[in-house]
Structure formats: C-alpha cells, structure tokens
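Late entry, written up from scratch paper. The run itself happened at the end of the previous shift, but nothing got recorded in the book at the time, so transcribing now.
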Amino acid sequence: MLGPARYFSALDNPSSIRQNSQEDGSQKIKSLLESNRIILAERDSLQRTHTVLLRENEVYQDEIQKLRKCIEELESKYGQQNASDNLGNRRIAINNNNNNAERLLL
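Output as recorded:
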C-alpha cells in the first residue's frame, strides 16, 4: 500500500510509475532469458553426455556378447572350472575399462 506522500507523488507523475514498471518488466524478461539460456546449455551438455554413454553401452554390449561366446568355447574345450576362472579375469578387465570411462566423463 502506498503511503500518502508516495500516493500524491505518483499522482503528480504517473508516467514515472509506467516507466518503473516497464523497467522492472524488462529486467525480469532479461533475467528469464538468461535463465533459459543456462538451462538450454545444461540440457545440451546432458544430451551430449547421454549420447557418449549410449555409444559406450553399445561397445560394452558387444564386448559382453564376445565374452559369452568365449565362455561357451572355453566350457566346451576345457570344462566349467577353467572357463569360470577365465571369465573372472575378463570381468576384471571390463571393470577396469568401466572405471577408466567414468574418470573420462568426470
């Protein structure tokens, strides 16, 4: 609520009220546009990261298929125990690759 002095001052100069409210509105619009720009930049960054992760996932899925085939071959050739030991070694290698990929993303 306007005090008496401000009320009369506003009546004396109504264009100053319009100008102030227009300036406030312009500042709000500028602020919203800047916020929108920041949000869009963050979205673009997240989309690029998502694309990279999808590609890495494809590579890992291919690697998993190769490992499954290798396990089947080892099981048929050497038996269950030797194949399991080899699988453990391959899992360690895959985990190391995953850790390296995570470090690159950070």
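The mean pLDDT is 76.
(Scratch paper discarded after transcription.)
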